[in-house]
Amino acid sequence: MAADMDEFWVFGYGSLMWNPGFRFEEKLTARAFGYRRSLCVRSWVHRGTERRPGLVLGLDYGGSCIGMAFRVASAERVGVTNYLRERELVTHVYKERTMPVQLSDGRRVPALAYVIDRNHVQYAGALSAEAAAATVATAVGKSGNNREYVLNTLAHLKEMGIRDHWLEEVAANLTAGAAASAQA
């Protein structure tokens, strides 16, 4: 089932899913193929510092990612694109891409998305859940505690009925680490 080619869709895989910050006409669960949600972006401002970086989500190559797709009215396209560029391209760690996504109703549509630039200095690479948890456990930035960011993200994903096994493993390591610290 094909979509109208004049439609404008935006794909969110992190906070954009529950906090898009723009008006939309329709919102559906969607899957992007060839990319996965990953804590692969070193955060130097919002969830860490340059000396002690945190980790935030990026859309990295490999696998697939379930997220949310938002259909935006044609008249809002330019404004929404400009808003997203201001939000997502601050340090240019992400690249703006239009990619096919499959909506939960079976349609395949092109959607605007932001994927990690693997050549950017803030790209952390593919980390183990243990390594990611160790980084997240102690990082704090101007938007708060990195641990809270990860646990809040996971809570929102669960509310939306989206499982992310790797992120769940990171959270389990965070919880185990906090319990071990409390006993020490």
TrEMBL record:
Gene Ontology BP annotations: glutathione catabolic process
UniProt-listed Pfam families: ChaC (PF04752)
GO CC annotation, single: cytoplasm
UniProt KW Secreted keyword: no
The enzyme's E.C. designation: 4.3.2.7
One MF term in the entry's GO annotations: glutathione specific gamma-glutamylcyclotransferase activity
Entry keyword set: Lyase, Transferase
The UniProt record lists the keyword Lyase: yes
Name of the top EC class for this enzyme: lyase
Name this polypeptide is given: glutathione-specific gamma-glutamylcyclotransferase
The organism of origin for this protein: Sinorhizobium glycinis
